[in-house]
Amino acid sequence: MWTHPSWQGRLLPHPLPPGERLRSYATWCNAVEGNTTFYATPAKSTVETWAEQVSPDFRFVVKLPKPITHERRLTGIDDPLRAFLEAIEPLGPRAHALWVQLPGSFAPTDLGTLAGFLRRLPSAYSYAVEVRHRAFFDDPRSAQLLERILTTAGAEWVPFDTTAFFQSPPTSDAERDAWTKKPRVPRRSSALTDRPIVRYLGRDATDRTVEGWQPWLDTVTDWLREGRSPTVFIHTPDNADALTLARRFHADVRSRLPELAPLPDPLPTEPLTLF
């Protein structure tokens, strides 16, 4: 995400060499979704450059590759899993969670496979699972079984809150594209671990996005008061203003919880001058 085209030169300095882009992003936000790892396992040397650009307390939530979760559906995955874990090893403590995003067809009947997969994972990492099958949201028994499996493994259930997005029909190309691709499931706001993770999708209009995240302000504030360490990712259909919106969400939580540490000051997009 730190190379998002619409941020370059507008929110982040441009041009920047690849080895400096994440460093600039980290002055805006202290966490990032590692979504590119879904499409290809990066070279270990590439991950080393990521680690070098951020502090040890920066958070990567890194998605497992598609061959593991979607193509092989968590079975027969020893080789790609081993390659992935070796590649991300340089992140060290920055690997806040490994993100197991499952396809919409991964149903309650597949939970035995998920339980077996989670049991085999190394304890050096924390894990977060995102499900999209409606039964996990509509059928209490399926939800309880999933929670039991995740709790036993010490893994988190990642909600992807699209409720605000689907409240009314799309009005732009970016919204129309997201309308066909994003899951339409109810909001879920229960934490299973001390590291809850929230993914929120708003609309093109900032006021609609801010209105939609209001329920999360109380939830996240309560988690912090309970001693949990939540991570919240703010999205819009085109993500053009995701950085400023993420900081606004953080500021809204901080207004309720002043002891929450502030985010860093972003780097200027233009060099500083005397005049």
TrEMBL record:
Superkingdom of the organism of origin: Bacteria
Region forming the signal peptide: none
InterPro entries to which the protein is assigned, alphabetical: DUF72 (IPR002763), UPF0759_sf (IPR036520)
A Pfam family matched in the record: DUF72
Name recorded for this polypeptide: DUF72 domain-containing protein
Organism of this sequence: Nonomuraea glycinis
